[in-house]
Amino acid sequence: MQNRRETLRQSAVVAGLLASTGLFPQIAQAAWNKNAFDAKSVAEVAKAFGAGAPVESKDVTLTGPDIAENGAVVPLAVATTLPGVKHLLVLVEKNPNTLVAKFDLSPEVEANFATRAKMGQSSDVYAVAITADGKAFFAKKEVKVTLGGCGG
Amino acid sequence: MSDPMRIRAQAAGGNATIRVLMSHEMETGQRKDAAGKTIPAWHITEVTATLNGKQVLAAEWGPAVSKNPFLQFTVKGAKAGDKVAVTWKDNKGDSRTDEAVVS
């Protein structure tokens, strides 16, 4: 006869299976966007977010050094003044995986984020803003790296 | 368990600028160890932040964010005394939350 412990364990297993099918949207959304982080080019990353080909825009800004002494720690800041932006992305074109970080915008935060990224080699860095209607806008800057940051 | 995050939250003109320094290896999965074996990827995948319990920031990170990640963002409508909490989750299932008060 099944005791309570067995029943609870079975429910947990079933719940886990259901969650992995993506039937529960909240749990599915919490999963990390693997397609986007595996993408190997700026266009692929935009596609992974359901956006069209990115268009250059003065309303997206990317701040970073012209020359990064240490490719393991390159300070980068992305910002946008465009309305209706859902995500702000940081991309390093020549990295093994192009997408570095994605920030979700909300009414409570400014569309302005700074972090530090690893760059494997001198490359164009992109700030991409993806709007709610599926358009992508970018700004780019070339950052030269004297010592590559991927440890290779 | 990793070291605590260092969070500085400063109010200025109706907003608060939050600076966070997290302690994490952020292994890319590209490096090989002395024996030639690839060191597996181990990095923060998600970061969230709340202001007085309400979520204000969600971010997803890949392995290219630098080791001991730095993050700066600005929360609107925050004032001195508000509580900011930052949480990260990594690809091994670990997570960590640290709090700070806006000054």
**For the CA atoms, what is the radius of gyration of chain B?**
15 Å
Shape of chain B: elongated
Tell me the CATH architecture of the largest domain in chain A.
Sandwich
**What class would the helix/strand composition of chain B place it in?**
mainly beta
Sheet-strand content of chain A, in percent, reads 35-45%
| Main pleated-sheet profile of chain B | 4 strands, antiparallel
Which features does this protein show?
heterodimer, A: 152 residues, alpha+beta, Immunoglobulin-like, 2 domains, six-stranded mixed beta sheet, three-stranded antiparallel beta sheet, 4 helices, B: 103 residues, mainly beta, four-stranded antiparallel beta sheet, elongated
Walk me through this protein's architecture.
By secondary structure, chain A is of the alpha+beta class. Chain A has 2 domains: 1-31, no CATH class; 33-145, Immunoglobulin-like, CATH 2.60.40. Chain A contains 4 helices and 9 strands. In chain A, strands 1, 3, 5, 6, 8 and 9 form a 6-stranded mixed beta sheet that branches. In chain A, strands 2-4-7 form a 3-stranded antiparallel beta sheet, with no helix packed on it. In chain A, 36% of the residues are buried. Chain B is an all-beta fold. Chain B has a single domain (6-101), classed as Immunoglobulin-like. Chain B has strands spanning 6-12, 15-21, 44-51, 54-61, 70-76, 83-90, 95-101. In chain B, strand 1 (6-12) and strand 2 (15-21) form a beta hairpin. The radius of gyration of chain B is 15 Å and the shape is elongated. The interface between A and B is medium-sized, with 37 and 32 residues.
Helices, strands, pairings?
The complex is a heterodimer of chains A (152) and B (103).
Chain A: H1 4-20, H2 25-30, H3 34-38, H4 42-48, E1 55-56, E2 60-63, E3 67-68, E4 74-80, E5 85-92, E6 99-104, E7 109-117, E8 123-131, E9 136-145
Parallel strand pairs in A: 1-9, 3-9
Antiparallel strand pairs in A: 2-4, 4-7, 5-6, 5-8, 8-9
Chain B: E1 6-12, E2 15-21, E3 44-51, E4 54-61, E5 70-76, E6 83-90, E7 95-101
Antiparallel strand pairs in B: 1-2, 2-5, 3-4, 3-6, 6-7
